[in-house]
Amino acid sequence: MNYKDLRIIFMGTPAFAVASLQALINEGCNIVAVVTAPDKPAGRGLQLSASEVKKFAVENNLLVLQPEKLKNPAFIETLQSLKADVQIVVAFRMLPEIVWNMPPMGTINVHGSLLPHYRGAAPINWAIINGEKETGVTTFKLKHEIDAGNILLQQAIPIHENNTAGEIHDIMKEVGAALLIKTLKAIAEGTIQEQHQQTILANHLIKHAPKIFTETCKIDFSKSTEEVHNLIRGLSPFPGAFTNFQDKILKIFSSKKEITHHSNSIGTYISDDKTFIKIACANGYIHILDLQLAGKKRMKVDEFLRGNKINSAV
Length: 314
Prior knowledge:
Elements: E1 7-12, H1 15-26, E2 30-35, E3 40-42, E4 47-49, H2 52-59, E5 64-65, H3 73-82, E6 86-90, H4 97-100, E7 107-111, H5 123-129, E8 134-141, E9 151-158, H6 165-189, H7 197-201, H8 214-217, H9 225-234, E10 241-245, E11 248-259, E12 269-271, E13 277-281, E14 284-293, E15 299-300, H10 301-305
Parallel strand pairs: 1-2, 1-6, 2-5, 6-7
Antiparallel strand pairs: 3-4, 7-8, 8-9, 10-11, 11-14, 12-13, 13-14, 14-15
Helix pairs in contact: 1-2, 1-6, 5-9
């Protein structure tokens, strides 16, 4: 079978998923419907705002479905009537079995890690926070357990020392889109060999990627310079690692390490009040490069220092 003949239902919501949908369109694939989140109030006027996937789908004249509940009988009936051969899920919510088990060729998920590592909601963030040198994308078949289905294909992505989550996100969405097309072709040709994650689990201590909460984002300067640097870049640009400065929340988006012995108290701010701010950590300092004080715009450190003094001698 030619992969372009497959009847595809695509499910996704944020910008990350748009790259995969774009790739399917570019390939001339037969997308019979796009399922995405309902429009939500946003902004000061709380006007209804569509997801990035919906905006893109509408621009490309695709049928859009936005069920409030995925078990809604009318929604299930619509899915059944579309007679999809395969469903593709990229950055969407959990599906009930009646949905993921519906198409004869199953439901394919594009996940932002090298499974079985970093199952969960925030795989890019946690890979960087944990100081990994490599991450990647996995295509796999959905089943009951979250991110535990049979692996189809994988593609590794290097993580460099100063890469942020935002940078890896932008690389990964394109790599994931290409891997999705490769996976579809292999499925249609019958050449893919599914790999049970359980066979990998036997020899690995699995690392997880749970949802990021506010407490995850607070910087602990008693940790090593490397750990603090990894937390900052792993949460940049969103939701952002933070600390306190003069009774306000200070978000830090980029930093550099200075590993050295020092006698300053942990968390001490040091600055020339012109060009740099550094904060004492366990084995050195973190230099703040890009930051945002609560209620203010994001700015570079020298711009910040034009309006804020650290009151600390170098």
